[in-house]
Amino acid sequence: MELTFESKELSRGHRRIADYISKHMEELPFMVEEDLAAACQVSTSTVSRFWAEVGCKNLKEFKQKVKDEIFLSPSQKLQSAFSKMNEEDAAASLLIGVDYLQQTAERLSQESFERAASMLREAGTVYIYGPGSSASLAALIDFRLTRFGIRVSHLSRGGHELFDRLVHVQPQDVMLIFGFVTESPELAVLLDHAGSKGCKTLLITDLVISEMVEKATVTLYTARGQLWEFHSMVAPIALLETLIVKVGKQMEEHAVAVSEELHELRRKYQKLLPKRV
Q1: pLDDT in tens, 145-156
Q2: Which fold has domain 97-266?
Q3: Distances (CA, A) of 145 to 121, 123, 141, 214
């Protein structure tokens, strides 16, 4: 079962149920089918048929699977990765990431991709929010965009420290947000504040149905594995690198000029600050 669901395979009524569950997962344990039907404005029979569409017998089984998948410990997720590893063939294990790349490519909208690159290129400042494991992604795109001469600012991972930088956000800026697994209070604040300031948001996520997706200006999906699995960063990194190349191509003349100036700067001071290998 996928808690992100597959909206293209669901009927209109079932998509409404899937969307509601994604937004109110914490309420699900206390709900019965009649509650869901009323909340989604569909019939109880539509709710009853929904469970089979997502691989369950009934609401009770669905609730149990939600519980099992969400509350698995990190050690259990790591064990999932171990079970997939081919001990006798490292190359075969490496190719597991190809499936995530394929899923990401299949869901990639060219229009959204082009718009995302244009947003980053034209931004006054790109504010980056990358909590947890996505901190590595935030560092990568910070390094690359700075090379192009794009102004970048990192947002704190959480709490009241977020406000210190948020107060400076302007309409011409862009928030690049990595939102994986679920929408945190910090993500909700960022998207809400960006909307109030008229600031565009680029969301990179592994969710198909989420309130974040609806709020963001542009969303790019990347596969990382199921909720109960050890999450891979193969596809997110590949997506970022592709996006970075697109940004560079859009500002090719300027990017080349900055690169040449960087080369001259290194050459001028190479005796004082030699390049470390």
Answers
A1: 998 889 999 998
A2: Rossmann fold (3.40.50)
A3: 9, 11, 6, 26
